Amino acid sequence: MAVDSSLSPLGPPACEKDAKALKFIEETTRNADPVQERVLAEILARNAETEYLKRYKLGGATDRETFKSKLPVISYEDLQPEIQRIANGDRSPILSAHPISEFLTSSGTSAGERKLMPTIQEELDRRQLLYSLLMPVMNLCVPGLDKGKGLYFLFVKSETKTPGGLLARPVLTSYYKSEHFKTRPYDPYNVYTSPNEAILCPDSFQSMYAQMLCGLLERNQVLRLGAVFASGLLRAIRFLQLNWQQLVNDIRTGTLNPKITEPNLKSCMDGILKPDPELADFVSKQCGDENWDGILTRIWPNTKYLDVIVTGAMAQYIPTLEYYSGGLPMACTMYASSECYFGLNLNPMCKPSEVSYTIMPNMAYFEFLPYDPNSASRGDSMTTRLVDMVNVEVGREYELVITTYAGLYRYRVGDILRVTGFHNSAPQFHFVRRKNVLLSIDSDKTDEAELQLAVENASKLLRSFNASVVEYTSYADTTTIPGHYVIYWELLVKDSTNSETESVDSVMSQCCLAMEESLNSVYRQGRVADNSIGPLEIRVVKSGTFEELMDYAISRGASINQYKVPRCVNFTPIMELLDSRVVSKHFSPSLPHWTPERRR
């Protein structure tokens, strides 16, 4: 069947199915404002009888003016009482007229625990719709993706139940366990090397091992390599470095590693694995080479691009990925969170620094709060400053505010976005950062208050040899795999007579562990269950180092009256200065405590 390329100004579609998807993107973005008006009216009409909307006396109104004049802009803490009631089993229509089907656990935290985002069953359809638009756009940029497969490292994470019996789990775990994913129709443009049994295996080692093994067995079929985050793909590379000999043995003999014990996965892999001495010799030769520069394209020679998120905090991994991939393009395809799926990148093969996401106006009702880091942004003045999506200004930064079908109303997501342009009348944004986040290695997000508390708790251990922390700063070290937090401490030692090296080393190691115990549950899960974060490191610097840091900042134009020690650093000259003053390094000696959270 001939495909009508006139349907999409984005380019000629690869097939009839793609043509429909591209036409949908064009029509939806061209009519962004009326679509937004319809979305808001639908949300308000269906939820008119909810406790939350009745509290603000909307009286059944569905227009923007009434909505904006009566509903406040809120954060998670404002909504926590309602969320707790739902978690505890209250099934009355508190936030949504449709039943809350589960909670999606955010990587953001409140009081050290993951935030719980309510969702409804039909949101899966909305998320699936956005997923269905990704490959039609990618096919415009990279032809022939129907001639091979994608090697994607995808994982499910732990889930818990609230006291009221609702599941609480990450959004991707919810999606991978849904029928939308498990029984997805065959699409030649979107075939994975990893079987569902491998993706859905709850044991992270077994899941990674099976996915890597399948990827090696089909190495010539692989046209794209990916994970959700850049850090996840690097973790897979590190896994290959540590386990390639056992993988080679499995390939050579056609027998599965006895560590793979999960029944469904074992049965699946037994049906796939056959002896292949030639492939075993090839993998052994490549992985046995000390030089891993370009290892991805050596093992998977037909790979056209990497599909990973490398925006925001993930940008720190770009140089390492370039090294291992031999400079393959990195595609960032979509912008989403636990709260809502927002939009997609219509130019996915652009440079990582140029990534812009087009907000799809059918996903939720979007408002934008002009971002000024020096403004308190509270109260009525904040509410009146909110801008609709079609009225944002190119070059300005905004904080994203959403109203969703699942019962979030004028909710501050915490993402800071910069407007780069428009596609038709839908704005395009560069993701700048998460608000208030200092440190991030994977899905963890540590803010200044959390870091301060962790330092305070750990520094109590220094009393045993009459010392205290004078100053500190930090950075996320991604040169190791997995990456880890590095904290620089300058100490004041009041009495050095009791400071034997052995006891100091022991206490400093315990300080590292005490800091980890003080950090939020997302960080601790990354350390314990996901192996996505390495042991925290404290580097003790010479006395006077932070004065030198201030002198350096002042020499570059900082005001001596307004200078504050940065609690996180990533400017190379400052890091070099700090590292040149390090007198000792200490690592957390064991894993911090973590168990799947029990919702009270």
Automatic annotation (TrEMBL):
Domain GH3 C-terminal: 450-571
GH3 middle domain span: 357-434
Record's keyword terms, sorted: Ligase
Any one annotated GO CC term: cytoplasm
Molecular function as annotated in GO: acid-amino acid ligase activity
Family the UniProt entry places it in: Belongs to the IAA-amido conjugating enzyme family.
PANTHER family according to UniProt: GH3 DOMAIN-CONTAINING PROTEIN, INDOLE-3-ACETIC ACID-AMIDO SYNTHETASE GH3.1-RELATED
Protein's name according to its UniProt entry: Probable indole-3-acetic acid-amido synthetase GH3.1
Species, as recorded: Prunus avium (Cherry)
